[in-house]
Structures are given as structure tokens and as C-alpha cells.
């Protein structure tokens, strides 16, 4: 019996997927990419980033799921950047949580877990794809939501 290999994405591969989507944004119909575009994205990824022995194929479905996950991170960071969150977010260093505000961060993530669970990885690390995803969203007049 064979098991499907897990699909592992590097930051570079995520960026390549977002660049591909941005270069084909005009082909998004009704605010969404069609199955054919996700197939093209998978073919692009396979050609430019062939899977290694410990990495599964980046299929159309995995490309679409990766984009959905990246958008969740984008929205978590966008919310964190709002003054209302009480935290300063820096695109280079993340939320810059120190001992002085670690308890507040824990409350933000844990007490309000449903609303803020996707922000947890960005305690002291940046989200490198913020600007790329922002360009794909409707607030820029040409993007889309899933």
C-alpha cells in the first residue's frame, strides 16, 4: 500500500505561486480562478519546482489550498496591523513580542483563539507574502475572495 507524500511548500515556492496568479489575474472570472487556472498553476509549479523524494506533487487542489492558507495569514496580519489590536506589527520582524507584552500576546492568541488563531506564527516572525496577496484582493479593484 502506498501513501501519498505530504506537500511541503518553501517560501520561495509560495512566492512563485503568488507571482503566477498575479500574472494571470486577468483570467479570473467572477472574482475567482477557474479549475483550468489551478491546473495551469500546478503545471507551472511542477515545471519550475519538481517534487523531491520527500515531497508530494503540487496539484491543482494543493495550489488552491495553499493560496487559501496564505490568505488566512494575510487577513490575520491585516487585523494585527489595525491599531485596535494593541500590537505594533513590523513587516520585517513580525509582532515583536517581548517579555513585556508576552502575556498580552498569549491572551490575544488564546482567549480570542477563534478570531486570532492564524496570527500565532507571527509572534516574532514576518509574513513575507503580505504585499503579493494584497495585490490579488478586491480592495485593489481587481482581486478576489475565496
UniProtKB/TrEMBL annotation:
Pfam families: Myb_DNA-bind_4 (PF13837)
Domain Myb-like: 1-71
PROSITE patterns: MYB_LIKE
Top-level division of the source organism's lineage: Eukaryota
PANTHER family tied to this protein: EXPRESSED PROTEIN, MYB_SANT-LIKE DOMAIN-CONTAINING PROTEIN
Protein name: Myb-like domain-containing protein
Organism: Pisolithus tinctorius Marx 270
Lineage: Eukaryota, Fungi, Dikarya, Basidiomycota, Agaricomycotina
